[in-house]
Design a protein that fits this description.
Layout (H helix, E strand, L loop, with lengths): L13 H13 L6 H14 L3 E5 L2 H10 L8 E5 L4 H9 L3 E5 L10 H7 L4 E7 L8 H11 L2 E5 L7 E2 L2 E2 L6 E5 L12 E5 L2 H11 L23 H11 L2 H19 L5 E2 L7 E2 L5 E5 L5 H10 L29 H6 L3 E4 L7 H14 L1
Parallel strand pairs: 2-3, 2-4, 4-5, 5-8
Antiparallel strand pairs: 1-9, 6-7, 6-11, 8-9, 10-12, 12-13
Bound molecules: pyridoxal-5'-phosphate.
The site of pyridoxal-5'-phosphate (PLP) has 14 residues, from helix 3 and helix 4.
Length: about 375
Amino acid sequence: MHTTLSMSSAELDEHDIDAVMAVLASGRLALGPYMREFEEMMAAFAGVKHGVGVSSGTAALHLIVRSLDLQPGDEVLVPSFTFAASVNVLLFERLLPVFVDIEPDTFNLDPADIERKISPKTKAIMVVDVFGHPAPWDELLALAKQHNLHLIDDCCEAIGAEYKGKRIGQFGDAGAFAFYPNKQMTTGEGGIIVTDDDRIAELCRSMANQGRGQMGAWLVHERLGFNYRFNEMAAALGIAQLKRLETFMAKRAHVAGMYQAALAGVEGLRPPIVRSEVKMSWFVYVILLNEGYDRDQVMAAMQEQGVPSRGYFAPIHLQPYMKDYPSRGGDSLPITESVAQRTIALPFHNNITEGQVDQVAEALKQTL
Ligand SMILES: Cc1ncc(COP(=O)(O)O)c(C=O)c1O
C-alpha cells in the first residue's frame, strides 16, 4: 500500500501550538519580548553577537546588502544555481550580479571561477550554502581578504550546518536564515540576520522598522526604511522550533541515510555528495541524473507512479525576467547549465518512512 508523498512538511506539535497561543493570550503581537528572545537564541546558536528578526529570508538578505554601503553598478559575485532571492536583492539595489559557476560535487560556488570573474568593480560575494551543504569557506575567506570583498552568507537553506566544526552563519560579514514552512525549522514566514558587526545589526534593525532609531520616537525616521518586521507569533513559534532543531536535523539525516541506501543500487543517477569537512543540514534531497536523461520526462513518469519531485534549481541567469536586468558572467557557466538540467529534489521531510523512501527509489528505478 502506497501512502501519499509530499515534497516537504513542517513538524508541528503541541509545543508550537502552546507557544503561539501564549502570545495571543498576552495581547502583545509585535515588537515584544518573544522577538528579542528568539533573536538572542538564534545569535547564540549561530555563534555571533547579534540576531535581527525580519519578515522573510529575502528581507534579511536585502537589508544585509543595503547595510554594506555599496554603490549602484558595483559588482557582486553570485551563483546562478540558487533561489531567485539571492540575486534579486542585488537587483533591488541596482548592483550588478556577476554569475559564477559551481563545483560539480556539492553545487556550491566555485572559488576558481570567482577568481576568474573578479574585476576592479567587484565589492562582494553572495555566498549560498546550497541545499544545506556549507560553501568552501576557507577559500572564500582567503579570496575576500585578498581582494577586499564583503561576504554575504545566504545560509537560508543551511541552518545548523557546520564547516570544519563551526556553525554556518558566523563566516561572512552577516548571514541570512529563512523560516518558510519547507525549511528545516519554520516560523510560518520569517527570517533573521545574524552578524558580529554592531553597525550592520543596528542598520538592519532600523531599516526593518521603517528607518526608526533604536530609542527614537515612533514618527522619527532616521533613514529610509521598510516594514520588514518579524511578529510575536512567528517569534514564539521560532523559539519552540529552535529548541527541537537538533532533533529535526537528526531525523532529516536519518531520512537522507535511508535514501542513500535505497538508491545505492539504482543505475542512472548520483545521490548527493557530502564533503568530509562539513556537517550537512539536510534541506532537500537532490539527486543528479546521468547525462542523456530528460529530466522532465523522468519527473512526469515518477508522478504517474504517485511520486512528486521538483527540478531544483532552475538557474537564475536563464530566468525570463533576467533579460530586463544587466548582469555579467552568464555566458560561462558550463557546470551550472549541465547540472541544472539533471537535478531532481525528491520528497523530503522529517517524518518520511522507510516504506516511502522505498516507494520513491522503486519509482526511480522503474523510470530510469
Ligand atoms: C537560497 C535561498 N535564499 C533565499 C531564500 C528566501 O527566503 P524567503 O522565502 O524566506 O524569503 C530562500 C528560501 O526560499 C533560499 O532557499
